[in-house]
Structure formats: C-alpha cells, structure tokens
Amino acid sequence: MLSAVENSPVLVLNADYRPLSYFPLSLWSWQDTVKAVFLDRVNVLSEYEHKIRSPSFEMRLPSVIALKEFVLQSRRPAFTRFNVFLRDRFSCQYCAQQFRPEALTFDHLIPKSRGGKTTWENVVTACSKCNLRKGNFLPDVVKMHPINTPRSPTSFELQERGRMFPPNHLHESWRDFLYWDSELENGNDSD
After folding, report:
1. What is the DSSP code (8-state) at residue 68?
2. Considering the domain boundaries, does residue 134 fall inside one?
3. So what's the pLDDT on residue 180?
4. What is the rounded distance in angstroms from the CA atom of residue 104 to the CA atom of residue 113?
5. Pairing of strands 42-54, 27-28
6. pLDDT score of 62 more than 90
7. How far apart are CA 45 and CA 18, in angstroms?
8. Distance CA 44, CA 66 (A)
9. In this structure, are 68 and 85 located in the same domain?
10. Which residues span the domain enclosing 34?
11. Distance between CA atoms of 157 and 178, rounded to whole angstroms?
C-alpha cells in the first residue's frame, strides 16, 4: 500500500502560473519537488496536509508549485500515436465515435505500401472496425474520407484539446490552477 506521501503528485506550473501541460497533466513526484524547493527553482503555491521529515528538517509536502524561470514550450508537438489521438479528440475519423485510447489505431490515408508516409498530414485516428474496412485502399476507392483533414497541430491546440479530457485524479488544491471544460467534483461546486 502506498503511503500518503508516495500517493501525492505535485502539480507543476510554468512561471506564468499555467500548467506546463494539460495532457498529460504536468505532475512531479514528491522527491523531484523537494529537490526543486531546496535548489530554489520553484515557488510553493499550495501544500498537502502531510509532512515529510528528516532528522534535521520538516516541511509540508507541496501540492502545487510554479517554476521560477519560464520554460518556453515547443511550438511543434512530437508526432506520437497519443498526440494523433488527442488531435482527433479520441474519435474515429471515419465513423465519428469516441473511444478510449487503447481501442484506437491510426490509419494512413495513403497506405505505407503505396508510398504513404507516417506524418501528421497522412495519419488519422481510426477505430479497429473502420481501419479494417478501409484496409490497404485509398480513401476514394472505398468511399471513406476522414471527417477532418489531417494536419499538424500546434502545441497550443493539443493543450487546449487536453483540457477537454481531465484526468481521473485531481487534488482539491489544484482547482484554482486548472481550467477544465467540465466540473472537477461530481457536479458539486463549493463556491
């Protein structure tokens, strides 16, 4: 069983007090956080109730920190399977149904066997059923065209898309620093 400290991720904000990333949410382990506090690289904005101790030191574990130096985010996101799914909102680009990431594949509009490249502009999210149906054909042949024309997203676009998919675990102290399109707690708002 994990201790309270081990099960206490820390939300990391950039120097402008925005999360470094929304999807995946920018989280650090308590060990990395404590090291950054001691090296004076972060400001502690919120803390958990529990403390960490050594023979000569005691502190409440931070729950939200902000970097002291701004980290410039890359404008060009990495081409990864997950980022393709995020760009396409976890929806099959042929049948428009939304799926969990493990139920998705990606499809080459121009199949690799026909010279198609694995690029933002040639790859779309597909469910297994649609991917099998399209097979090794060109979209015109099987009358299967993607709902959205595939293109390279910006990092900002992916971050905005990530805000639509809040993670399962959100600590109450993070609430003021995250802006989700859905409510954080079972529809209860304590304001």
Report:
1. S
2. yes
3. 54
4. 21
5. unpaired
6. yes
7. 12
8. 7
9. no
10. 1-72
11. 16
Distance CA(135)–CA(108), nearest Å, equals: 10
| Phi, psi dihedrals of residue 162, rounded to the nearest 5° | -60, -30
Tell me the two tokens of residue 54.
Answer: 């050594």
Q: Tens digits of per-residue pLDDT, 9-24?
A: 999 999 999 888 877 7
pLDDT band at 166 (very low <50, low <70, confident <90, very high): low
- Token pair, residue 151, equals 């293109």
- CA distance linking residue 17 with residue 15, whole number of Å: 5
pLDDT band, very low/low/confident/very high, at 116 (cuts 50, 70, 90): very high
pTM of the model: 0.68
Residue 153 domain flag: no
Distance CA 171, CA 62 (A): 12
Total count of domains within the chain: 2
| End-to-end alpha carbon distance in the chain | 34
- For position 140, what pLDDT does the model report? 97
Residues in the chain: 191
Mean pLDDT of all residues in 24-52: 93
Q: For residue 186, what is the DSSP state? A: T
